[in-house]
Amino acid sequence: MESHKVRVGITHGDINGIGYEIIFKTFAEPAMLELCTPVVYGSPKVAAYHRKAIDSSVTFNTVETAGDAESGKLNLVECFSEEVKIDFGRATLESGRAAFLSLERAVADYKAGLIDVIVTAPINKNDIQSEHFHFPGHTEYFEDRVGNGGKALMILANSLMRIALATMHMPLRGVAQALTVDGLVSKLRIFHHSLHADFGISLPRIAVLALNPHASDGGLLGNEEADVIAPAVKAANEAGIPCFGPYAADGFFGAGLYRRFDGVLAMYHDQGLAPFKALSMDDGINFTAGLPLVRTSPDHGTAYDIAGQGCASENSFRQAVYSAIDIWRNRKADVEAHANPLRRQSNTDRKDDEARKKTSQSAEE
Hints:
The protein has helices at 19-26, 30-35, 44-53, 93-111, 138-146, 175-178, 181-197, 224-238, 249-254, 269-279, 315-337, 347-364; strands at residues 7-11, 37-42, 61-63, 75-78, 117-120, 153-157, 162-165, 206-209, 243-247, 263-266, 285-289, 295-298. By secondary structure, it is an alpha/beta fold.
């Protein structure tokens, strides 16, 4: 495992955003090419246009398939050959289709065993919609394509915290109805396993946030805490998952309580992402847990307002590459560690062993 150079599949995202810029800036650093073999799924023509726009000197190696990718180079697999218009800062149907074709090719190569992990550059969730892509975001797309019936869990991670979402891309008005005891326990189970196997935490502790202000003030501001969240926390603990709460979200983050836990389960998208992004200091990443595939992304969007200007920060994208590699290695190490577990002896087994020892001693005497 240590000698294996991880092949990182990279989707180019929305071609009118900063995807290529952060890819080029990340792999302008020679050490990144020593760490992994990157394979970008996109278009040589589009890549060249972006490179010129931001005045980058980074070169890329166009290959027919990921199987032809060369170590020490930034490789690029052509996903479409036709001309497309680059219109920095605008959402267009062309840019949405280009993003979709990149995703589809990367998934196909992952299933074929040609790449190990996938890192996605940001997409526009509206312009990518079509008869072929009808998902609220990347997370749901990968759950459908490679989940094998498993459920995906969105985790935002950085050096300070790991926040998972009980509900993902849905209108706020539907969150309360979407929360159930069984659903929360399922999310906590996936989160607990990911913290252990993906992040290498031996005994993870999870904080669970409340839905309503002040954790409902004893029922004054809602009943979800008493009827759903607290019972889910109790059931998860009984299942061997150490978790605590529900905590009122404002006080939890305001008092820095996230430092006392290995993970935090938020009830809805902005409850988790708003404090995370405020505290992420440009190093946050998005990880899709619960699937066979290791998929990460930066924790920001297409940044249309600065696209093509050469001023985008690549820090979050670089961290996404680092994290994908680390999680891939952690999973391999976890599998190896549990490959040949010692058989636990029952009381009957112990008595049989003692009887055999006595019989052996008697024979020797």
